[in-house]
Task: inverse folding
C-alpha cells in the first residue's frame, strides 16, 4: 500500500474513532427525517441543497476538526518527521472528507430511491460531490492555518457561510431573484458548486453554465491546492518547530 | 554523521537569534548529549537537524551531504523521540504503531519493541488510558519503528520509573552498540553520565564546551580527597592532595590509626559543570 492510500485509510479510521464520521451520519439521519415529511415534488431541489451544505460547509468544519485534533495531540509533529510528501498529507485528508461526503450522498440517494421513489443520476452526483467536497476540504485545510483554535475556525466558517453559502441558498429557494445578483454568483465557488449539484439532481441548468461551473471548480481546486501547499511549509514550521 | 558549522537561526518575530554560530559534529556510532537550560537553543538545534525548521544560516551536513538536499527519504533514516506524547489518543497503542509502521520501507518488529518496553500486554488499550510513563515508552517505540540509523531523543526517560528508565537506557546503549548514532537532549545528568560518549553544553545559543563526560569531570576536579574519621568521640575531617597521597604521613596515619567514617575524592559532577557552564541550576 503506498503512503497516500495508507494516510487516507488511516484518516478514515480516525474519523470513525474520533466520532467525526458518526457525527456526520447523525446529521444525515436528521436530514432524512426532514426529507421524509417533504413532498416528492421538492425532493430534488432540497436533495441538491442538502448535499451542497454537506460537501461545502461541513467539509470545511470536518477538516478543521481533524487538524485541531492533530495539533492538540502532537501527532502533527510526528507526521512532519515521517517519510511522506506534504501533498499526500493534505490530499489524504481532503479525500477522506470526500469519502464522508459520498457516504452522505449514498444514504440520501438510497432514501430518495427506495422511500420516495425518485430516480436521480448517482454517477453525476458522485462526480459533483468529488469536485465540491475536494475544493471545500482543501479550503478548510487552508483556513485552519489562520485559525488559532477550533472556535476561531468555526467563526471563519460561519463568515464563509454568510458570505458565500447563504446567498446561493436564497437564490436556490428563489428568495433572491435579481438577475444582476445571479451574475455576481458566477464568480463564486459556492454557486458553481450548487450548479453542478443541481444538474446532477436533474434540475434545469444551462449547458454553458454547467461547463463553466465544472471548469471553474476544477481551476479553483488546482489554485487552492497550490496556495495551501505553499502555506503549508510556514504552518508546519510554526506547529512543528516553534 | 553530522557536521554543523556556524549554525544560526532566528525565529520569525524574534529580535535576537536563538542559535549563534553553533559548531559541532556527531560521530557515527556515538551517543552525543546536548545539554543546557531551557531556551538556550538545544531544542531548536534538534529541530534543525530533524528538518522541522528551515531557513537557518550556516551549514548542516548529514553523511557528507547538505541536509537541505535530502528529501522525504531522510525520514526513512532517522527516528525522532519527542518529549511530549505524539499519539492518537483514541486509538490503541497497536493501532498507532501499525499505522505509522506502514509508512516506512524497513519497519521494525514492533511486537518485539512493545514487549521490550513492557507495553505488549497493553497494546490493545487506548492511548488515552495510558499513564505518562507508558506514553513515554510508546514514544520510544515510535522513534524506533523504522529501524533508524540516527536517533534523536528528547528526554527519553522523563516520567519513567527507575525500572522502565533502565530498560530504555539499555535499549539506547544496544542501539549504539549495533552501530546506531544518537543525539540525546536531557536534563537528567545521571542519564548523560551513563549514556553519552560525548557531551556538548549550550549557553546563549552557542556551544560552550564539548568533551567526554569523564574528561569534563576531570577538568573541573580539585584533585583532593576528604577523609572523615572518628577521633575520640568526635568526627574530624581532613583534606589531602591526591598527587602525593601515598607519601602523606598524616593521611597514612589516619587510615591506619582511626576509624574512617567516609572518604571522598573531589571529582566534579556533571551537574556542577552544567551550573558552571550555563549559570543555571538544573531545575530552572
Result:
Amino acid at each position: 500500500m503506498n503512503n497516500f492510500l495508507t494516510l487516507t485509510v488511516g484518516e478514515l479510521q480516525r474519523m470513525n474513532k474520533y466520532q467525526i464520521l458518526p457525527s456526520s451520519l447523525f446529521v444525515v439521519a436528521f436530514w432524512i427525517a426532514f426529507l421524509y415529511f417533504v413532498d416528492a415534488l421538492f425532493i430534488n431541489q432540497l436533495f441538491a441543497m442538502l448535499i451542497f451544505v454537506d460537501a461545502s460547509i461541513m467539509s470545511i468544519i470536518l477538516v478543521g476538526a481533524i487538524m485541531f485534533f492533530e495539533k492538540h495531540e502532537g501527532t502533527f509533529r510526528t507526521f512532519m518527521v515521517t517519510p511522506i510528501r506534504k501533498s499526500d498529507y493534505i490530499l489524504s485528508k481532503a479525500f477522506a472528507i470526500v469519502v464522508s461526503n459520498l457516504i452522505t450522498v449514498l444514504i440520501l440517494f438510497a432514501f430518495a430511491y427506495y422511500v420516495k421513489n425518485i430516480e436521480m443520476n448517482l454517477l453525476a452526483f458522485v462526480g459533483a460531490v468529488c469536485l465540491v467536497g475536494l475544493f471545500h476540504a482543501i479550503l478548510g485545510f487552508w483556513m485552519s492555518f489562520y485559525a488559532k483554535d477550533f472556535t476561531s475556525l468555526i467563526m471563519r466558517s460561519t463568515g464563509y457561510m454568510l458570505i458565500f453559502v447563504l446567498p446561493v441558498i436564497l437564490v436556490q429557494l428563489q428568495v433572491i431573484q435579481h438577475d444582476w445578483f445571479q451574475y455576481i454568483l458566477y464568480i463564486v465557488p459556492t454557486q458553481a458548486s450548487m450548479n453542478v449539484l443541481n444538474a446532477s439532481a436533474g434540475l434545469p441548468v444551462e449547458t454553458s453554465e454547467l461547463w463553466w461551473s465544472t471548469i471553474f471548480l476544477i481551476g479553483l481546486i488546482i489554485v487552492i491546492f497550490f496556495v495551501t501547499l505553499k502555506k503549508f511549509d510556514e504552518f508546519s514550521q510554526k506547529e512543528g518547530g516553534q | 554523521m553530522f557536521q554543523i558549522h556556524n549554525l544560526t537561526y532566528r525565529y520569525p518575530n524574534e529580535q535576537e537569534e536563538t542559535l549563534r554560530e553553533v559548531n559541532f559534529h556527531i560521530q557515527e556510532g556515538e551517543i552525543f548529549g546536548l545539554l543546557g537550560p531551557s531556551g538556550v537553543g538545544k531544542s531548536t538545534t534538534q529541530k534543525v537537524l530533524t528538518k522541522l525548521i528551515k531557513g537557518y544560516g550556516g551549514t548542516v551536513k548529514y553523511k557528507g551531504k547538505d541536509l537541505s538536499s535530502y528529501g522525504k527519504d531522510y525520514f526513512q533514516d532517522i527516528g525522532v523521540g519527542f518529549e511530549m506524547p505524539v499519539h492518537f489518543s483514541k486509538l490503541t497503542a497497536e493501532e498507532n504503531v501499525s499505522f505509522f509502521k506502514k509508512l516506512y520501507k524497513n519497519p521494525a518488529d514492533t511486537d518485539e519493541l512493545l514487549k521490550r518496553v513492557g507495553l505488549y500486554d497493553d497494546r490493545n488499550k487506548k492511548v488515552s488510558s495510558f499513564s505518562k510513563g507508558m506514553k513515554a515508552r510508546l514514544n520510544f517505540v515510535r522513534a524506533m519503528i523504522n529501524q533508524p540509523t540516527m536517533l534523536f531523543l528528547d528526554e527519553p526517560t522523563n516520567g519513567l520509573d527507575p525500572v522502565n528508565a533502565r530498560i530504555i537506557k539499555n535499549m539506547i546503549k544496544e542501539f549504539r552498540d549495533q552501530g546506531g548514532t544518537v543525539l540525546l537532549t536531557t536534563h537528567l545528568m545521571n542519564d548523560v553520565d551513563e549514556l553519552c560518549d560525548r557531551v556538548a553544553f549550550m549557553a546563549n545559543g552557542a556551544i560552550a564546551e564539548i568533551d567526554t563526560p569523564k574528561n569534563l569531570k576531570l577538568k573541573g576536579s580539585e584533585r583532593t580527597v576528604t577523609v572523615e574519621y572518628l577521633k575520640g568521640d568526635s568526627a574530624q575531617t581532613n583534606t589531602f592532595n591526591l598527587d602525593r597521597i601515598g607519601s602523606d604521613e598524616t593521611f597514612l596515619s589516619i587510615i591506619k590509626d582511626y576509624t574512617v567514617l567516609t572518604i571522598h575524592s573531589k571529582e566534579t559532577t556533571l551537574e556542577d559543570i552544567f551550573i558552571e557552564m550555563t549559570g543555571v541550576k538544573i531545575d530552572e
Notes: The mean pLDDT of chain A is 88. The two ends of chain A are 33 Å apart (CA to CA).
